[in-house]
Design brief:
The chain is of the alpha/beta class. The protein has nine domains: about 240 residues, Rossmann fold, CATH 3.40.50.300; about 230 residues, Rossmann fold; about 110 residues; about 130 residues, 2-Layer Sandwich (Double Stranded RNA Binding Domain), CATH 3.30.160.20; about 180 residues, no CATH class; about 140 residues, paz domain (Beta Complex); about 250 residues, Orthogonal Bundle (Ribonuclease iii, N-terminal Endonuclease Domain, Chain A); about 90 residues, no CATH class; and more. The chain is globular. The two termini are about 80 Å apart. The N terminus and C terminus are likely disordered.
Length: about 1900
């Protein structure tokens, strides 16, 4: 028979606040919670739950809620609080309110009509009731603050409740909620307490509920075995320590001296006493508590520490003397103790000098020694130690650790203990570096404890609370627990079954300890008896529970396929596990919601159960148990089993019956997540990443490949018509040469083709004569050529490429005139006739050239030269070559001008030679014969063959142009002659003079020469455009099923244009963010100048790669990347922040010098020295109402007083004065509240009592304060608990006069669980009935949705999402008339222009005039949007976690890469710069070697693996075979404990990324990264979207293989209203419920704010429902809508930015997009439109978060200054475990904003234009602000902030959640981590964190400039 442990058999409990709220709605309840821990939450949410009745009009049955407070000053405070969180109108009433309430009942009624909730003082409410202005039955909720006052028989609370009870007998009465601080004082006798609690319950007619975190711990925590060990007292004086008296005397005298000295003026001197007092205090405390050995050790530490302070900086003499005095005291104490202590080398020797508690401690530990367990305890399997030892003081923790380490080294039997310690930060100042270090150390130690690397943790109370520690089996309370909290918390840490909880106590404390523990246990019982979760019981009071075998009650569930079996006894645990795996934020624990239903069968009570899973689970309906069970527990188990069955059928549990958790998803994400751009060796590049590159063949267009011309067959003539559209830039033409427009030439070049070639767009090339537009024009008539002509043409063609263009120099090409050449068109010179635009081949010219085809230059014989006569005509438009120079590399010159006045005898422009004659004779031994010839002024012909880009003058020319020039270049002629000279490029404005006689004239004229130089660029571009035209045709046919793909004769494509083509354009594309800012500030002229300069500097590449940190870059710039990494590693973290400071060094056991900072005093000495300003912690002690003084103006209301921790000094006088000021009644009114002046004027009969109370309170507090201060002096390092429970002593409030009527009312404390279940369900039913009957406004069915006038705005209509973009030019135009042919949605015309397709295929690496980046940005966001839309509508019941995963898979780079590869995209991509000499194959040439490099072996295999993963198959883990390459890489990647870590080593990268690891054939192959292919796919999507509009694009995406919904596919959108709760008797239950929610959360009001009226209201309700709100079963939660809205917003905003007339460059576009599409912005907008008031949630953590955030936003006045901290604030999706308190932005708020966008999109029938109108209305200000002052990405900003010293050092992936954590190191010793869904987010978060911290430091520096001078 299976015995079931009861505690494993309950569903995970809800948050206690939610539990309380649930009870409070169903029955009258008194909630007792400390300040801040959620009373506010419960009150406000209770009011919201009654919203339906409150918002109903008063005359139609609406009710009112009253919030009754004790003191006037609380009225406003509570009212403000309620207003922040709800849409209620809140009225305030107290004695001084002047509203005419009292004048007449009408006035009062008017007031009630206007306000839903009234916050009122008790006396006023009583008066209103007594005067019959108000009736209790018209209220629906009555909340009493500080309800313990009701014990006073004369108190108005009591009087109101008396009336209430009388009414109760025959009228409906409101729900009562009493709020009070904790009623359990540790020192109250339990019996007495019980009696008082009952009294209070009776007075308030309510039940006290004791749920709290503490009680939950008692209830659900483990029950360890408790032991008290009594030890001998430790009296330090009786140990006979040598020199004992001297030591004590030194302590006393030094302390007295330090305390009484008046040497230091508080404002003028550097006061060193803090560290000195600390050193004395701690050493003395250790001496007294742990004995001389520990004190000896501590003294050493301090000696060193003080020494460090003395050396650390220049200090004034007086200060130094003081420090030295202290150091001497320490040395003396050390020396006095040393002789004896040094000898100790074993635990026996130590025994006499330590308390017995320590020895006992070691005895307990010894029982965990594996040998001891085997031999003495006869255990088979040793139990591993996992212990926590709690001590009160930080120093004791440290000293114990030292002792343990030494004993471990002395005694082999303790070798198994691995101790460490953990303490909290004292100061609350989290920005200080030491508490950061401390926090890091704490997390690190706890992580090692989790992994069992440490098995014994010594801790202060910091671990009792909050910090999650794994289960341990031994908890030792070294100092006995002094209060209930400490007892329960520390006990709750022993969670493992069978663990022990040991308290060590000395004999003198035994009695006290004993009675305390008894009380604690009694009180625990009382508390538990009042915290019953009846629907999820732990205890079962039905009899017969133990008697039978649970599993026999119901058949187990078996999965046939795998044989997995689930029994009843394990079902609950599985459901708990499933719920915890559902997506939720960090504040929300999703738990199942169970209800037990008692049923009478033949007089026997049996039980059914009903289970609701969290609302984001696909199973939305209640799971009901059909057959009743004999008791409650089994009913729970049975319903859980049924739920598991349904979950398995839904596919939520896999066939092994395990939740399909995030682990498997994380595993997959690992393959597809984008990877770090940091360098880490040995990590194989992932498929789809930019690191993984492969080789692909280059492709030649079909038309050019098949154009081989045969003799005597007809062929087409194609002419290259060049037309100049712009003169050459003056900078490029410094000598002001005149050029003719080639359009006017009588001849041009063209080529012959056997086939017709498709029309392609004209395109620009940039020649010396200016910028040309090239058109490919077909001659009207075909032609034929004879075999002889063909041969001549081939020779001519070959001549052009070899002789003129010098292409075959390297011998890698050979001419092939057959059809084998990949590109086989022949180039011919053409004559053109202007009149009819006809072209003919100029054979005469061909023959001439071919006839003169010798190797140029020809060297004339001497006699020929003597005959030479100069003829100017020969040199016009000629190309000349000097023949007396290097003939290997001939140099060609254009003759620019003939200089008739220059002769060879003219003066030579260089001092070394007199004349030209002399120069040539001396230099070349050449005599010039014709002395009458004119000289020539010439220009270089450039060998730059890439003319695709505008010419940029200040690029140094290739040296091959002028390898060894000896032209007489003035003034450097001689200099450039020597071979070594590097100045061979003459400055372009200097003239170059040549002598005609020494020249050879080239047969080809200069004008044609220019055109020939353009041929490679022209052919290269024509090929590209033809290829993209083929792609266009493929898409038309395959994606759109079009027959016709050819262009008609009368239309042509618009020409290919670059962004940089015109200067006008240059102002349009905004490149750098800085520029964008200037554009908005400076005048436009400056702007143009600046942009122009920018454009000249960059070659199109540099400005785009913004923000990628590459260590190599740094090295290049000369930054030293240092390798100091010694800050926080190893043992040196040991003493971090023990008091507060970091240090380096290592603790070794033998080393006597213990480096150990007790306080970072140096920081203290230089930091703020004004007493109070330095207090950092602020824990208020006085309960005021219930806020932690969250009064109206916290800044100027004085804090009650603060417990001081942290670095500040203690200014006792100031403190006492403060306490006096706050608690002196005569001044209290003015200080406690600025709003109410006379707080004590209230009906007179209470005055005296209140004053007495105040007086008493005041004296108590003063007394407390004094005690505290003394205690503080005594032991400042006692750790404080995180928060102090407020408690109320009920005795103070009761009085002896018992009211008579109380006797008659029996206490209503239900006796059994069944009775309570009954009571709760009746309460719930009643409320439901009233809700349903309350009048509803605005619940009519709506015909259609509409955008309200407030949101209508012309600017949002500047473009339409349904149509193509206005910003795109590349359409069809009517031939020559330049008029656009437009095409509408259904008619896609002829597809996308080849030039746009080409842009979409050109990477930025190609350094061309265009790149795909802008298209890629828009394509990326449209792809995300389309995929999301598809997934949302196809996976209808999947929760957001699975949707997100499916989306990441679909849009991942590896998926796009795989699709792109299938479509052959890589062969079309332009990935490298055009280099005519190396990587271009000219027409009619073939490479001389046919070598082709293969791809790496595993490339194929990896692609296939990814293919399998993306198809959703299971991945089998392959053992990776290590190659020699991987060995080095092992270190960088490791997986432990569910975290995979990749460390990026510090090293400069060697070599260049772009270089392939293997040689490959440049002519036929290209090397492209996977990511470029993915980018190109996105860019193609983008370009189709912008040219054709969205619907055709979806067809194209479908053709690509992406999953999208097509326009014409009708997708059934199920109604958002879920109808599970409808029943035959109540068919409209769900609609009614929706109406209730609609009214309760005031959604009509919200619609007005956002400017949109919903047709389907359920969408809006769903958009506001948080997963924690279990009551809404009619819509589901917002997670799916958020998933959709996220993509909708992203796409709309990106598209809007894209359409902006300022045409942002890709970098800016991306930055603006990430600045606008992020959680922080969305959350602030949500708060701006008060979404939080309509938020449907039950989640305390989130509630407090939102409250803080709303305050933050209103302080900033809702302005989104992107560069302010606001943009830096962290949202919860970015946070790391254990750092929850860092969050400032509640992600939920951003999520609602996104889900509202999703809701509008769906409600408007998926209409983006409508959605954009509404969203633009909300975001307009933000968007405009952002564009005017764009933020920089945090990564970039960090790089600039600390340029030299930033390094991203490692990345970890948490496998459970799939999140990524990235670490960044700044200035070597500061580390910040960031979390995120993927690497990119995490990296940005880490950068944000670092920046935030650096900004803080910066600010502190600015604020205290005077202090840095010390």
């Amino acid at each position: 028979m299976v015995r079931v442990r009861a505690d494993l058999q309950c569903f995970n409990p809800r948050d206690y606040q939610v539990e309380l709220l649930d009870k409070a709605t169903k029955k009258n309840t008194i909630v007792q919670l400390g300040t801040g821990s959620g009373k506010t939450f419960i009150a406000v949410l209770l009011l919201k739950e009654y919203g339906v009745q409150l918002f109903a009009p008063l005359d139609q049955g609406g009710k009112r809620a009253f919030f009754v407070v004790e003191k006037v000053n609380l009225v406003e405070q509570q009212a403000i609080h309620i207003e922040v969180h709800t849409s209620f109108k809140v009225g305030q009433v107290h004695g001084q309110t002047s509203s005419g309430l009292w004048d007449s009942k009408e006035q009062c009624d008017q007031f009630m009509k206007r306000h839903h909730v009234v916050v009122i003082t008790a006396q006023c409410l009583l008066d209103l009731i007594r005067h019959a202005y108000l009736k209790i039955e018209d209220m629906c909720v009555l909340i009493f603050d500080e309800c313990h006052h009701a014990l006073g028989s004369q108190h108005p609370y009591r009087s109101i409740m008396v009336d209430y009870k009388l009414l109760k007998k025959d009228k409906p009465v409101p729900r009562v909620l009493g709020l009070t601080a904790s009623l359990i004082k540790a020192k109250v006798a339990p019996e007495k307490l019980m009696e008082q609690l009952k009294k209070l319950e009776s007075a308030m007619d309510s039940v006290i509920e004791t749920a709290s975190d503490l009680v939950s711990l008692s209830k659900y925590g483990a029950k360890p075995y408790e032991v008290v060990i009594i030890c001998k007292d430790f009296e330090i004086g009786c140990l006979g320590i040598p020199n004992f008296d001297t030591v004590i005397e030194i302590f006393d005298e030094t302390v007295a001296f330090v305390n009484t000295t008046t040497e230091f003026h508080p404002d003028l001197d550097l006061d060193p006493r803090r560290p000195i007092k600390d050193s004395l205090k701690t050493t003395r405390a250790v001496f007294r508590q742990l004995g001389p050995w520990a004190a000896w050790r501590t003294a050493q530490v301090w000696e060193k520490e003080l020494g460090k302070i003395i050396k650390s900086q220049v200090l004034p003499d007086k200060t130094l003397r003081f420090l030295n005095m202290a150091k001497t005291s320490m040395i003396t104490i050390k020396r006095l103790l040393e002789p004896e202590m040094k000898k100790i080398k074993s635990i026996e020797a130590l025994r006499p000098y330590v308390p017995q508690r320590v020895i006992r401690l070691f005895e307990i530990l010894e029982t965990f020694n594996p040998e001891f367990q085997k031999e003495r305890m006869k255990l088979e399997k040793a139990e591993h130690l996992s212990a926590i030892i709690f001590v009160d003081q930080r120093y004791i923790a440290y000293s114990l650790l030292l002792m343990m380490r030494h004993i471990k080294s002395w005694e082999p039997k303790f070798k198994f203990v691995n101790p460490d310690y953990v303490v909290g930060a004292s100061g609350r100042n989290l920005a200080s570096s030491d508490s950061q270090g401390l926090h890091k150390r704490q997390t690190e130690v706890l992580r090692r404890f989790h992994r069992n690397e440490i098995n014994c943790l010594i801790a202060t109370s910091v671990l009792e609370e909050g910090v999650d520690v794994k289960q341990c089996n031994l908890v030792i309370k070294f100092d006995r627990p002094l209060d209930m909290r400490s007892y329960v918390q520390s006990k709750g840490r022993a969670r493992r079954a069978g663990s022990r909880y040991v308290i060590t106590v000395e004999e003198k404390d035994t009695a006290a300890c004993d009675s305390d523990l008894k009380d604690f246990q009694q009180i625990e019982k009382i508390l538990l008896s009042r915290h019953r979760t009846v629907n999820n019981p732990i205890e079962d009071d039905s009899d017969r529970f133990e008697e039978f075998d649970v599993d026999s009650q119901m058949e187990p569930y078996v999965v046939e396929k795998t044989g997995a079996t689930l029994k009843m006894s394990t079902a609950i645990a599985l459901i708990n596990r499933y719920c915890s795996k559902l997506p939720s934020d960090i504040f929300t624990r999703l738990v199942p919601h169970n209800q037990i239903i008692p049923i009478e069968e033949n007089g026997v009570t049996k039980y059914c159960a009903e289970l609701l899973l969290p609302i984001n689970s696909p199973i939305k309906h209640a799971i009901v148990l059909k057959n009743p069970m004999p008791n409650k527990k089994t009913a729970q188990m049975a319903v859980a089993l049924e739920a598991c069955r349904q979950l398995h059928l839904e596919g939520e549990l896999d066939d092994n019956l395990l939740p399909k958790g995030r682990e498997s998803i994380a595993k997959l994400l690992e393959h597809i997540d984008e990877e770090p751009d940091e360098y880490a060796p040995g990590i194989a590049a992932k498929v789809g990443s930019s690191k993984r590159k492969q080789l692909y063949d280059k492709k030649i267009a079909r038309a050019l490949n098949e154009s081989f011309v045969e003799a005597d067959k007809e062929c087409f003539i194609y002419a290259f018509e060049l037309e100049r559209f712009r003169e050459a830039e003056l900078t490029l033409n410094p000598k002001r040469r005149k050029f003719e427009d080639p359009f006017n030439y009588e001849y041009c070049f063209g080529f012959l083709s056997a086939k017709e070639i498709p029309k392609i767009p004209p395109f620009p090339v940039f020649l010396r004569q200016g910028n040309m537009k090239v058109r490919l024009i077909v001659a009207p008539k075909k032609t034929t050529v004879t075999a002889a002509q063909l041969q001549e043409i081939q020779l001519f063609h070959n001549y052009l490429f070899t002789q003129v263009l010098q292409m075959c120099k390297t011998g890698n090409l050979e001419f092939d005139g057959t059809s084998n050449a990949p590109l086989n068109t022949l180039i011919v010179p053409l004559n053109k006739r202007k009149d009819d635009m006809s072209y003919t081949i100029n054979m005469k010219y061909v023959s001439e050239v071919v006839a003169n085809m010798e190797n140029m230059p020809r060297i004339p014989k001497d006699e020929v030269r003597r005959q030479y006569k100069f003829n100017a005509e020969d040199y016009k438009d000629a190309i000349v070559m000097p023949w007396y120079r290097n003939l290997e590399q001939p140099v060609f010159y254009y003759v620019a001008e003939i200089l008739p006045e220059w002769r060879p005898s003219s003066k030579f422009p260089d001092t070394h030679f007199e004349t030209f004659n002399e120069y040539f004779i001396k230099k070349y031994k050449l005599e010039i014969y014709d002395q009458n010839q004119s000289l020539l002024d010439v220009d270089f012909t450039s060998t730059r063959l890439n003319l695709l880009q505008p010419r940029i003058q200040n690029q140094p020319r290739r040296s091959r142009t002028v390898s060894n020039s000896s032209t007489s270049n003035i003034p450097q002629a001689s200099a450039s002659d020597s071979k070594e000279s590097n100045t061979s490029v003459p400055h372009s404005s200097q003239r170059q003079i040549l002598v005609p006689e020494l020249m050879d004239i080239h047969p080809i004229s200069a004008t044609l020469w220019n055109v020939i130089a353009a041929l490679p660029s022209i052919f290269y571009r024509v090929n590209q455009l033809l290829l993209t035209d083929e792609l266009r045709e493929t898409i038309l046919v395959k994606a759109f099923g079009k027959e016709k793909t050819k262009l008609d004769d009368n239309v042509e494509w618009n020409s290919l244009a670059y962004a940089t083509e015109y200067e006008e354009k240059q102002t349009i594309i905004v490149k750098k963010i800085q520029q964008l800012r200037d554009l908005n500030q400076k005048s436009i002229e400056d702007q143009e100048r600046e942009t122009r300069e920018n454009d000249k500097i960059d070659d199109g590449e540099e400005l785009f790669n913004i923000g990628v940190w590459d260590p190599e870059e740094a090295v290049r710039i000369g930054v030293e990347i240092s390798s100091r990494d010694d800050r926080m590693d190893g043992e040196d973290q040991d003493t971090v922040g023990l008091t507060q400071g970091l240090h380096d060094g290592n603790i070794s056991d033998e080393d006597d010098e213990l480096p150990f900072v007790m306080h970072d005093y140096t920081a203290r000495l230089t930091s703020n020295r004004n007493g109070i300003g330095a207090w950092s912690g602020s824990e208020s002690i006085v309960p005021s109402g219930w806020g932690d003084w969250d009064g109206p103006e916290p800044d100027n209301s004085p804090m009650p007083f603060q417990i001081l921790g942290g670095p500040g000094g203690l200014n006792v006088q100031a403190l006492m004065a403060d306490v006096g000021r706050v608690f002196d009644p005569s001044t209290a009114s003015s200080s406690l509240s600025q709003t109410v002046q006379e707080s004590t004027v209230s009906p007179p009969k209470q005055l005296t009592k209140e004053e007495e109370q105040f007086k008493k309170l005041q004296n108590d507090l003063l007394k407390q304060a004094k005690e505290r201060l003394e205690a503080l002096e005594m032991s400042e390092d006692m750790e404080k608990p995180r928060r102090l429970e407020d408690t109320v002593n009920l005795e103070d409030y009761g009085d002896d006069q018992e009211n008579q009527e109380d006797e008659n009312t029996p206490t209503n404390f239900p006796k059994t669980i069944d009775e309570e279940i009954e009571e709760l369900s009746i309460g719930a039913r009643k409320k439901q009935e009233i809700d349903d009957n309350a009048a509803k406004t605005d619940v009519l069915e709506r015909e259609n949705c509409e955008v309200l006038p407030v949101a209508i705005n012309e600017k949002s209509r500047s473009f339409s999402f349904e149509k193509e973009s206005k910003a795109i030019n590349g359409r069809l135009i009517r031939q020559r008339s330049e008029e656009y042919v437009s095409h509408i949605d259904s008619d896609i015309g002829l597809g996308v222009s080849p030039c746009l397709l080409l842009t979409a295929l050109t990477t930025s690496n190609a350094a061309d005039g265009m790149s795909l980046e802008r298209f890629e940005t828009i394509g990326d966001s449209f792809l995300k949007f389309a995929t999301t839309d598809y997934l949302y509508h196809t996976l209808l019941d999947q929760h957001e976690g699975k949707l997100s995963f499916a989306r990441s898979k679909e849009v991942s780079n590896c998926n796009l890469y795989r699709l792109g590869k299938k479509l052959g995209i890589p062969q079309l991509i332009v990935a490298n710069k055009f280099d005519a000499h190396d990587s271009w194959l000219p027409p009619c040439y073939i490479p001389t070697c046919d070598f082709k490099a293969p791809n790496t072996d595993d490339a194929e295999e990896k692609d296939n693996e990814i293919e399998r993963i993306l198809d959703g198959q299971v991945i089998e883990e392959k053992p990776e075979n290590k190659t020699g390459w991987d060995i080095g890489g092992d270190v960088s990647k490791s997986t432990t404990d569910g975290i995979e870590t990749i460390t990026f080593p510090k090293q400069a990268r060697v070599g260049n990324d772009d270089i392939s690891p293997l040689p490959y054939n440049l002519l036929t192959q290209q090397h492209i990264s996977d990511k470029s292919i993915a980018d190109a796919v996105e860019a193609l999507i983008g370009v189709h979207l912008l040219t054709l509009g969205p619907n055709p694009t979806l067809k194209v995406m479908n053709w690509m293989g992406l999953k999208v919904i097509q326009k014409d596919q009708k997708s059934d959108v199920p109604s958002p209203l879920l109808r599970f709760i409808d029943t035959p008797t109540n068919p409209n239950a769900s609609l009614n419920f929706l109406n209730n929610l609609w009214q309760q959360f005031q959604f009509t009001q919200l619609e007005e704010k956002i400017g949109y009226r919903f047709k389907e209201r359920a969408y809006l309700v769903q958009a506001f429902t948080h997963a924690s709100y279990i009551n809404n079963r009619v819509t589901g939660c917002y997670q799916r809508l958020e998933f959709l809205g996220d993509a909708v917003l992203d796409y709309m905003i990106t598209r809007y930015l894209f359409e902006d007339s300022r045409q942002y460059s890709p970098g800016v576009l991306t930055d603006l997009r990430s600045a606008l599409v992020n959680n922080t912005i969305f959350a602030s907008l949500a708060v701006k439109f008060e979404f939080q008031k309509h938020f449907i949630a039950m989640c305390p953590g989130l509630y407090h978060m939102i409250e803080k955030f709303v305050k933050l936003c209103s302080e900033r006045n809702f302005d989104t200054n992107f560069n302010a901290e606001m943009y830096m604030v962290t949202t919860e999706e970015e946070i790391d475990e254990g750092q929850e308190e860092d969050i400032e932005v509640p992600k939920a708020m951003g999520d609602i904003f996104e889900s509202v966008a999703g809701a509008i999109y769906l409600d408007s029938g998926r209409n983006l234009d409508t959605t954009w109108q509404v969203i633009f209305h909300m975001m307009r200000g933000t968007i405009e602000l952002c564009c005017a002052n764009p933020p920089r990405s945090p990564i970039r900003e960090l790089m600039e902030f600390e340029q030299s010293k930033v390094r991203f050092s490692k990345m970890e992936r948490i496998l459970e959640s799939g999140k990524v954590r990235v670490t960044v190191e700044v200035v070597n010793n500061m580390r910040f981590t960031g979390m995120g869904r993927n690497y990119r987010i995490a990296k940005a978060t880490a950068a944000k964190r670092a920046l935030k911290y650096l900004h803080q430091i910066e600010q502190q520096r600015r604020q205290s400039p005077s202090l840095t001078t010390v």
